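Instructor's aside before we start: the two examples that follow are unrelated to each other. I chose them only because their records fit on one page, so don't look for a connection. First example below.
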Amino acid sequence: MACVAVASLLRTIELEFLQYYPRPLVLHDDLISPNKDLIQSFHQKLGSLISQLDEERINMDGVEAFKRVETKLRDLAFRVEDEIEILVAHLYDSEEEEVKIADLVFKEKKPQRDTEGEKTQPYCVKLHQVLQSAMKEIEAIKEELVKIKAEAGRKTAHDVLQRSQLLSSHHASHSKEKMVGKKDEFEIIKKLLTELGSKEKKVVSIIGMGGIGKTTLARRVYEDPSIFLHFDVRAWVVVSQLHNKRQMLVSLLNSISKQDDIEQSSDEELALKLYQCLKRQRYMVVVDDVWTGEAWDDVSNCFPDDGNGSRVLLTTRLAEVANYTSFDNDFSHHMQLLDQTDSWNLFCEKASKSRDAKFEIIGRPIVEKYKGLPLAIFVVAGLFSKLNTLNEWENIAKALESSTTTIAATCSKVLSLSYNHLPHHLKACFLYLGIFPEDYEINANELSRLWSAEGLAKASENENFDVVAERYIQELMDRNLILVRKWSCCGRRIKLFGVHDLLHAFCVKEAQKENLLYVVRENGSDFPQRCFRWVSIQSSNFDVTTLSYSSRSCRSIFCFSQEYISLNLEQFKLLRVFFLIRSDKYRYIIFVDLVHLRYLPSALDNDQNIKKLFKAWNLQTIYISLNHRNYLEFPQLQYFYCTFIRVYPPTFVHQRLHSLSWLHMFQT
């Protein structure tokens, strides 16, 4: 899919050439005025082409020639963006040091030429050549698309998805969802936790395949009022495939009560503290999504046995893991697929459709095909919830008929179809979720700033960006593509959410296939010999210099390591997002002049690094402990987090800035 590449390029063109306050050196070298018509024409035709491809994708499902066209457009967008951003970065190479640059950035709004006949600058010519060549390729792609459509013929599914860009108010219910079906299993688990067995500690296991609803069942039991009253203490931790002992201990402690001194504690101290919190208490601990016996061993000794009926509720896909954690099969439960009645009820509830005869005739065979797997039913119901006519339902039903009968293949088909039916702006935003580790709790506000920095979403002139991002997240929820973890205090906005394992795996796979994402999971992983735009470091011992091969194309680095590591960013000239989950865990960070940086966490600790950011004209989000007032004058700045300002307040602040956090002013 070309959606990410094109969205990113369109936003880069807007920021560098079409915004109200373009980069001063771009104006100084006169890149815009002689190329203005060409820039605007290219921007318009590129946006029109991606919209056209988006509309035709449903008709062209499975047509290899259409996929090749998308690949050509993706590669074109990546190449043009590289050439534009490298060209802009070179503008700074030809300038004198910070004094001259600072004069341009903060004093001159639009430098004027001395004479009208002044010779055209080489950079201006280069930009013209890049865009003119790209225009020819776009025209060639459009001609190729016309031929493909003629050969494939017009399909009746052309109007299958008339997508609604705005949410219907009746669709945004924030009430707690009912658990459709599983009532018997719900009662079984409750009984195992509260009634059966001796008073000794027991491990109760819920076993089942991915997507069958293990976590949903465990969560509903965990939140049940009778469970709340029965146990003195409750705690929850998600383990996942790549477990981290320290993270597990911290999560368990924080789910009991907020801890103040965790950061300074060793793993052994954390384990002891957890043991003491549970000692002499009747506790219930949920250990969700356990894949190995080693993960269980990391925390099992923290669960004391005081003979008071304490329970550990464990969910896993693997029976061998359940057997490892407990030899008592009486306390293991294998989840069952939904029967036809519950499957149909789940589908109707999530699709939000009236159960008239026509809908049932079309919907029943689809639901039966998914053989009671809740996730598959959940996702396809989200797809149906966006359709309004009988013809649309029938066309989707025909598309789903081509899938095989195996559950894995069916799930894959459902996810692919649901993804293909997303409008292109949501495709890009959804794929981006693959950068986060599995089971990661995503902060909606943080994600919206990342989307903005990547160019995957933008606000119109009269719209606040937070509103746009909120709408996108809501649309993903309405399609059952994300799992809400926490609502805002007012109950109207999604604050935290997660992604189901199967959906997360789909995002990672698609993003990797499109040369977008590389995930560093294992210590000492070798970086593959091809270029990626996003690098997600989920290893605690990774040498960032191994990324050198793709440093030219790498735009975003995400560090999710909980351990101390060092980073050298000298080779990443085009970096626009640098994300750290824990900025206090990095011994030192070497910066260069990151001209294109748009998102920066609190990773700077000296004035030398700070000065290098003055060239980052399009900074949008910055977390910083030291400040120069000029940061607030950057035209794209949206979110500014600062512990204090050491100089006088700025002379002016651009209207895009809408969030200041922890700002303390000091007058001298």
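Example two begins here.
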Amino acid sequence: MRNYKRKTERASQSQDVYELASAEVLENKTSVRKAAQHFNLCHVSLYRYVKKKKSDKSLSVGYVKPRLVFKEEEEAKICEYLLTCSNIYFGLLPLEVRKLAYQCAVMIEAKNVPPSWSENESAGPDWFKNFMARNPRLSLRTPEATSLSRATSFNKTNVQDFFRKLTEVMDRYKFTPSRIYNIDETGVTTVQKPKKIVAPKGQKQVGAITSAERGTLVTLVCAINASGNSVPPMFVFPRLRYTDIFVRCGPPDCIGAGNSSGWMTEKEFILFLDHFIKFVKPSENEPVLLLLDNHHSHVNISVVKKAKENHIIMLSFPPHCSHNLQPLDVGVYGPFKNYLSRTQTAWMHNNPGKTMTIYDIPGIVKDSLPLAMNPSNIMSGFKATGIWPLNADIFKDSDFAPSYVTDRPNPASNESETDMNITVSSLTTNLPNIDSFDNCSLDISVSEIISSMENCDPVTSNLTRIDNTLFTTALPEGQPEFEPTPGPSGLQKQNDFSPSKIRPYPKAPPRKLTNRPQRKRKCCVLTDTPEKDELEKEHEEKLNKTKKSEETKKGKGKGKRTMTKDRREKDKIKIVKRQEIEKVKKKVLNSDSESETEEWFCLACGETYENSNEEWIQCIMCKMWAHVKCATGNKISFVCLNCDSDED
């Protein structure tokens, strides 16, 4: 029965209540009926429980479920495995969970496996439904698409490097919250994402009016500081000819710019940097810390020079980590997109039949941006990222779980040493606290050590077997050595059961060594002299490449080239072919001149070609000519009478 409903309250009390009642009967010599009445139990059930307790039998309360395939401990391990897969962003589909359940049942040689499992090689949908009901920590969720670069880059190494450099900069310049700024861009389109509306229940499809199918993008640039203040924004329009009329309805003191794409480029970012300096007014005594990502418009020599001249210290985030480290992304842009969608929907209702254009965007942003960019959201964004107040330990180990799959040692490092360190660390963290093995009595058994090692976290531990020699050196004299059993028994199979042995956690292969050096951006203080010199060097290399490419384009077809043997042979063949072509041309010209001197007569009437003004036709067989009027038969493929009679 799939949906069974209990009709009585029998066996609804827990075993703890029976333990208290049995203690009352055995220790205080209370009668069974009085104890059962006091604890609201059935006196017969209590009598049976006390009788089992006196005879040291196994105690159990409630109805037994004999058809369960897995025990509670085994289902708990499957549940933990599924949660770990979800945390590392490799969650399993319901069908994959059912296949995994069948494989686990085969591994532990479960007794109550239905025949349909063996036929389909997977568990049934009813088992999956009941499994989810028995484990309320699990639920079916629609995951958010996360790029591999974000999951890979946000790891402990990159985050610790960022906070180390942030701490150095804070200690060097003693920045206050009002002098710590963050700059970032976001896109605003003319097509809003409709929010939930009230609609008829049961209707399959519900629609909402939008401006168009695909919108035009306008880039919005914002700057905020840790004290909750902000700088007027900037709009980048996809227009080559920009005028200030575009932002006449925008937020106060906002500015605008235009280019062919509407994206931020080096030219527009320098313009916003001048706008930023105008409002912030950094000085030599009060410099400003500017946190920004590694976009190509931010990381270039002209921007760094302007920032250094105006006492702005630029610190870049690690690549692909802005979703957790950038205050604007964490605290402001999420609510802003929500308010923006509502404001755009209201604009569509107030302007029925009108299409939203990029010139209406500044007015819409003016109404929605202050709702999201309030001091509370700004300060909470800086606090959640650990930038202010400075907290390098703001992120937990679970936040770095997605990087487990690609968290690999560098090719130059010794992988065996890293594996040994992981094994030793997991061993020392999961074993009981033992100060010394020399002058103490070893009360812990090997089985307890094995069970403690089985409880290790599969993500952080790589220890899969225990060597016998690991414990023989630590055991005191007189203690029997550990002798492994020759083969695994059924009890050991249940104890060693782990879904990760059937379906291991995904792990990326070792990194490949490449001869080509790749320049990858990293977290750095861009205004420091070494980073500035490196950017200048990159800029000069780009200029040299462009000059060489222009010179090669201009110099094509000029100058002498070194001739190889293959090239010479090809040129000789070309010369011979040209000579043959010229000979053929001469023959054709000679034949044309001879034909001009010859006299042609009509095959039928004998009239000459010179004295005739009529149209002529040539025989396809003998190549002789005749008047069209004199020719008989097919005029397209004409055959004269002489040739026709020869064929007969």
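The longest helix spans residues 565-597.
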